[in-house]
Amino acid sequence: QIQLVQSGPELKKPGESVKISCKASGYTFTDYAMHWVKQAPGKGLKWMGWINTYTGKPTYADDFKGRFVFSLEASASTANLQISNLKNEDTATYFCARFYGPLDYWGQGVMVTVSS
Amino acid sequence: DIRMTQSPASLSASLGETVNIECLASEDIYSDLAWYQQKPGKSPQLLIYNANSLQNGVPSRFSGSGSGTQYSLKINSLQSEDVATYFCQQYNNYPLTFGSGTKLEIK
Question: How far apart, in whole angstroms, are the C-alpha atoms of residue B31 and residue B91?
Answer without folding.
Answer: 9
